[in-house]
Amino acid sequence: MVWDKNVLVKGGDLPNSLDATDIFFDGEEFYELCSSRVNTRNTHGTGCTLASCIAAELAKGLSMLSAVKIAKRYVEAALDYSRDLIIGNGSQGPFDHLLALKNMNQSSCRHDRFNPNDLLLYAVTDSGMNKKWGRSIAEAVKAAVEGGATIVQLREKEAETRDFIDAAKVCLKICRSYGVPLLINDRIDVALACDADGVHVGQSDMPVRLARTLLGPEKIIGVSCKTPEQAQQAWIDGADYIGSGGIYPTNTKANNRTIGLDGLREVCQASKLPVVAIGGIGLSNARAVMEIGVPNLKGVAVVSALFDRKCILSEARNLHAVVSESALLIQ
User: Is 155 part of the annotated catalytic residue set?
Assistant: First the structure.
């Protein structure tokens, strides 16, 4: 593959090799790009996909070396995702470059793709707060969506896996009856087990590209970002949205560095993805957050302002009214 002075020699097709090592030459230096070999018959289309991906990354303004690295990583992830596909009887099967063939014949309860407007009022649960007020997680979620929460994230750090899955299934049924997406914080295994609508991961959790490989293209993936660099990487890795904060000090997360409204604005301006703000946001400051003047800020995420209150339903209604009005004014 030649582009001006750049040359990429692919090594993924070498027989009996345990790895897939490509050599890239930029006219001055050689780079050895190594990855594990994915053993699968489904390799038809890998070369065309690699070339298309490189071209797409170059169009974003990346350097040739960066474009090649991203394209190689994408092809590796897609190969791994499609390794067990059984389509056709030939010696070579199709490479699932859009991560779609596995789910071609499967039905889903949510046929629509992610809608950024769903981020408007983002409810994040807290088991400690539910325990404090004597509520089950299902009761808390039901009150939140009845009051106007537009998306729900189950963040249950202390729950046992089986209990978490059982609770998530109940909450998923509630959310789908209201047409509200349900995401799982961090736990990809729980999201898969209950067929949640997606996940939200932090910078130290499972990488977005690996989560995408496991979940497929139809699920929603959000990632926490505090810096413009993290925001740009989230887009490269295939996230659907960014959660940015903490905007204000909060007791919900220990040692959580705040970035303020200026930091939020910088992240939004750097991001090609929709953004939801989080951290210390409530009725008193939600309007100020929504009105910072960036079009891709789509909503606010709240924890204490919903779940550490006597009546979740009324708090959700009040918050929804405030953020909805601000969103309309911005438009």
Answer: yes
pTM value > 0.85: no
Name the catalytic one among 110, 142, 155, 226: 155
Residue 253 annotated in active site: yes
Note the pLDDT tens digit of each residue in 142-185.
999 999 999 999 998 888 999 999 999 999 999 999 999 999 99
The pair phi, psi for residue 8, each rounded to 5°, is -120, 120
Closest to 124 in 3D by CA, of 306, 309, 320, 322: 306
Q: What is the DSSP string of 53-106?
A: HHHHHHHTT--HHHHHHHHHHHHHHHHHHTTT---SSSSS-B--TTS-GGGTT-
Q: Which of 82, 127, 224, 326 is catalytic?
A: 224
Three-state secondary structure call for residue 50: helix
Closest-CA residue to 268 (of 256, 255, 258, 277): 277
Does the active-site annotation cover 304?
Answer: no
